[in-house]
UniProtKB/TrEMBL annotation:
Source organism: Litorisediminicola beolgyonensis
Subcellular location, principal: membrane
One of the Pfam families matching this protein, by short name: DctM
Full protein name: TRAP transporter large permease protein
Record family assignment: Belongs to the TRAP transporter large permease family.
Keywords: Cell inner membrane, Cell membrane, Membrane, Transmembrane, Transmembrane helix, Transport
Cell compartments where the protein resides: Cell inner membrane
InterPro entries (alphabetical): DctM (IPR010656), TRAP_DctM (IPR004681)
Function recorded in the entry: Part of the tripartite ATP-independent periplasmic (TRAP) transport system.
Domain TRAP C4-dicarboxylate transport system permease DctM subunit: from-to ranges: 9-418
TM helices/strands, residue ranges: 7-30, 50-70, 135-158, 170-195, 215-236, 242-265, 277-298, 318-349, 356-381, 401-422
Entry membrane topology: Multi-pass membrane protein
Length: 427
């Protein structure tokens, strides 16, 4: 049945059918041909129960927060400020791409939104200053993936909801690997640009007083991140309540910088509705598919398959990592998460692994899927912002950063404390 399901999934996706609809169609197919019970009669109740949860309200709030920051012009100011602090490194503005993506990841919670924001602001600079288009665009695509690792992350909220694990602990667990991955991107960029200086363009320095003035542009974003994450970790607010506070804070920041207008609110709300509707359709569709798969015994089948291999728990984790890497080539990231979590996570927990740790490992692999063809969403987002060149250039530019992600996945497997140290220290 696994083979039929995989072929059906890939076949429907190649027809450009929306992912949420594909998941419903597969659920109907499993119900019709493999399930011993007529599950379709319970569809209405399942749709309602899978979407009627207070935790999920955090998703539109965090999406709206990111939309306000982008559409009020704060992204442009943030990029310019970080440019003055990091462009002295070998690679120049490439580091501003990574730094801006890291900072917006700490507020928006969405990789695609982060990549689109940085690409829109940065691409005109690349063309004007003569940067290598491959490395420059690849850094934006890779930096955008940090949006689902550094808290607050929409994907971590979905993971916590589906696995019933603590979302604040997941946020804490993602902080060190997320910042570590951003630093790895910086290091690998420095190494490449030292070996081939032509990749990075001109290194620029600015007077120190100008650098200090630029910090004023960053203080509101840093304060916003501190308020959102601090209230969650202190137990003063749930992730949903903190997201609402974050939206209010984003409006205040936009007003301080003169970015508030009726058009800004209109565009932000419309963008939030579109993104949230897509996410919820995928979550609900995946819930129905997972329900039918459980009824048909897919979990037992997969467990029997893995046990039949006679592997140790460590070897099984490596097989699971390989499965995610391969599936990431073909399946959109959120869909990949919600389809596989109910099947894979119970097996991982049964082998004695921590679900918090595995969630962070999964996010690293999901990040990789965002920049690997043919379905890597960030590749298309960045290419759309470029409006010139080829998609192949963006793909080639992400290769060094994919290597950094593989190294981070290996580090998490070798040293689980990278993810678990902070949650345990602050418990």
């Amino acid at each position: 049945m696994i083979a039929y399901l995989s072929l059906g999934l890939l076949g429907l996706l190649t027809l450009s059918i929306p992912v949420g609809i594909v998941l419903f169609l597969l659920g109907f197919g499993v119900d019709q041909f493999f399930s011993p019970f007529p599950l379709i009669k319970g569809l209405g109740n399942l749709v309602w129960s899978s979407s009627n949860h207070a935790t999920l309200i955090a998703i539109p709030f965090f999406v709206l927060l990111g939309e306000i920051l982008v559409r009020s012009g704060i992204a442009t100011r943030t990029y310019a400020a970080l440019d003055r602090w990091v462009s002295w490194l070998p690679g120049g503005l490439v580091h501003a791409n990574i730094a801006t993506a890291t900072m917006f990841s700490a507020t928006s919670g969405s990789s695609v939104a982060t990549a689109a924001t940085v690409a829109t602001v940065a691409m005109p600079q690349a063309e004007r200053l003569g940067y290598d288009p491959k490395l420059f665009s690849g850094a934006i695509a890779a930096g955008g993936t940090l949006g689902i690792m550094i808290p607050p992350s929409i994907n971590l909220i979905v993971y916590g909801f589906l696995t019933q694990t603590s979302i604040p602990r997941l946020f804490l667990a993602g902080l060190v690997p997320g910042i570590g991955l951003a630093l790895a991107f910086v290091v690998i960029t420095v190494i490449l640009c030292m070996l081939r200086p032509g990749l990075g363009g001109e290194r620029r320095t600015f007077p120190f007083p100008e650098m200090l003035r630029a910090l004023l542009q960053l203080i509101p974003i840093i304060l916003l991140f501190t308020v959102i994450i601090g209230t969650i970790y202190k137990g003063w607010a749930t992730p949903t309540e903190a997201a609402a506070v974050g939206v209010a804070g984003a409006v205040v920041i936009a007003a301080l910088f003169g970015g508030v207008s009726l058009q800004m609110f209109h565009d932000s709300i419309l963008g939030t509705i579109k993104i949230t509707s897509m996410i919820m359709l995928v979550v609900i569709g995946a819930s129905f598919l997972n329900f039918t798969l459980a009824s048909a015994g897919i979990g037992r089948e997969l467990q029997a398959f893995l046990e039949g291999l006679g592997l140790t728990p460590f070897s099984t984790i490596l097989v699971i990592v390989l499965i995610y890497i391969v599936l990431g080539f073909f399946i959109e990231t959120l869909s990949l998460m919600v389809v596989t979590i109910p099947i894979i996570v119970p097996l991982v927990v049964e082998m004695g692994y921590d679900p918090i740790w595995f969630g962070i490992l999964m996010i690293v692999l999901i990040e990789m899927a965002l920049i690997t063809p043919p379905v890597g969403l960030n590749l298309y987002v960045v290419q759309g912002a470029r409006q010139s060149g080829t998609l192949t250039e963006v793909m080639l530019g992400t290769i060094p950063y994919i290597i950094a992600m593989l190294a981070m996945a290996a580090a998490l497997i070798a040293v689980p404390g990278l993810a678990l140290w902070l949650p345990e220290a602050l418990q």
